[in-house]
Amino acid sequence: MDKKKLRYAILKELDSGNKNINEATFGISQEEFKEQVDFLVREGYISKPMYADNIVYSMSFVNVKEKGEDYLSTNSSWSKLYAAAKEIRDWVK
């Protein structure tokens, strides 16, 4: 799994308004998803999601912060590749 691509994909989905994402969206484990979401929160890319039993329960109220928008802009070369990917799962691997 490419962590940078996964972070980009999470940010891109949230920025596009898709807040109904979870580990299944990306074909990864709950632990991997939580680790990357925690990273994005810790580094100031997104606001904090809802947690339950130490897993990410909901991304419904998560917002992409300015730093997250900057990350998407900096990696804009991935945008076309990401849009062309048939499956998000395949793109992050």
Distance between the termini: 4 Å
Outline, from the CA principal axes? Answer: globular
Give a quick account of the main beta sheet: strands, pairing sense, barrel closure.
Answer: 2 strands, antiparallel
Q: Number of domains in the coordinates?
A: 1
Mean pLDDT: 89
Strand content: 5-15%
Work out the radius of gyration.
12 Å
List the topology elements.
Blueprint: H1 3-15, H2 23-26, H3 30-42, E1 50-52, E2 55-58, H4 66-74, H5 77-84, H6 88-92
Antiparallel strand pairs: 1-2
Give the gist of this structure:
The protein is mainly alpha-helical.
Q: How would you describe this structure to a colleague?
A:
The structure is a single chain. The chain has 93 residues and is mainly alpha-helical. The chain has a single domain (3-92), classed as Arc Repressor Mutant, subunit A (Orthogonal Bundle), CATH 1.10.10.10. 56% of the residues lie in helices and 8% in strands. It has six helices and two strands; from the N terminus they run αααββααα. It has helices spanning 3-15, 23-26, 30-42, 66-74, 77-84, 88-92, and strands at 50-52, 55-58. Strands 1-2 form a two-stranded antiparallel ribbon. Strand 1 (50-52) and strand 2 (55-58) form a beta hairpin. Helix 1 crosses helix 4. The longest helix is centred in the N-terminal third of the chain and has 13 residues, at 3-15. It is globular. The termini are close together.
Keywords:
single chain; 93 residues; mainly alpha; Arc Repressor Mutant, subunit A
